[in-house]
Every structure is written in C-alpha cells, then in structure tokens.
Amino acid sequence: MKIFRFIKALFYHVCGGFPKSSKKEILRRYGLCSVCEFYDEPNSECLHCGCNINTKKIFMNKLAWADQKCPIDKW
User: Fold this and answer.
1) 7, 23, 30, 75: which has the fewest C-beta neighbours closer than 10 Å?
2) Does residue 21 register a pLDDT over 80?
3) How far is C-alpha 73 from the geometric centre of its chain's CA atoms?
4) What are the residues whose beta carbons fall under 8 Å from the beta carbon of 57, sequence distance 6 or more?
5) How many domains does the chain have?
6) Residue 75 lies in a domain
7) CA angle, 38 then 20 then 22, to 5°
8) Summary count for the chain: helices (H), strands (E)
9) Could you tell me what percent of the chain has a pLDDT over 70?
10) Is 74 inside a domain boundary?
11) Residue 40: which H helix or E strand, with range?
12) Could you tell me the pTM of the whole model?
C-alpha cells in the first residue's frame, strides 16, 4: 500500500511540473512531522503514509514537493 501511495503522489507531482517547496516550507513541514504521533524518528519516516521525512531539498522527499499535502492534514 505504501508504494501505491508514493506512486500516486509521484504521478501528481510529475503532472504538476515538479513544483518544489522553499527551504522555509520544508522546515515548517518537518517541524510538524517531527512532533506527530506517526513520526518514526530512527527511520525518519511517517508510519501513516510512509513518507521520507527530512529537511533536504531532494527529489525523493515529499516534504520538498510543493504540490503535496499530509494525508492527515497536519500540513
């Protein structure tokens, strides 16, 4: 199921033209995720949706994708 959610997010991200979040937005989202009950600190991922949670502005980081949102509306 985790791979399905990622592929769906990737599809919309590609169709949207790869919009990127600012470093400030990535840090804001990271701050919300890092205190969430679903945040798995040792693995830096969300246990709810499987997102990679980090502050890097890289391709495989959903926090850096401007067109994405948290599935439980945290950001």
Assistant:
1) 7
2) yes
3) 12
4) 20, 21, 23, 26, 64
5) 1
6) no
7) 80
8) 2, 2
9) 100
10) no
11) strand 39-40
12) 0.85
Mean pLDDT confidence for 28-56: 92
Element (H, E) at 39: strand 39-40
d(CA 22, CA 72): 22
Reading the block at residue 44, the tokens are 């830096």
Residue 17 lies in a domain: yes
**Domain limits for position 24:** 2-64
- For residue 68, give both structure tokens: 């994405």
Residue 44 resides in a domain: yes
Please give the average per-residue pLDDT across 26-41, as a whole number.
Answer: 96
Query: In angstroms, what CA-CA distances link 17 with 1, 11, 12, 49?
Result: 25, 10, 9, 23
CA dist list (Å): 3 to 7, 8, 9, 49: 6, 9, 10, 10
Other residues' Cβ atoms within 10 Å of the Cβ of residue 29: 24
Please, are residues 38 and 46 in contact by the beta-carbon 8 Å criterion? yes
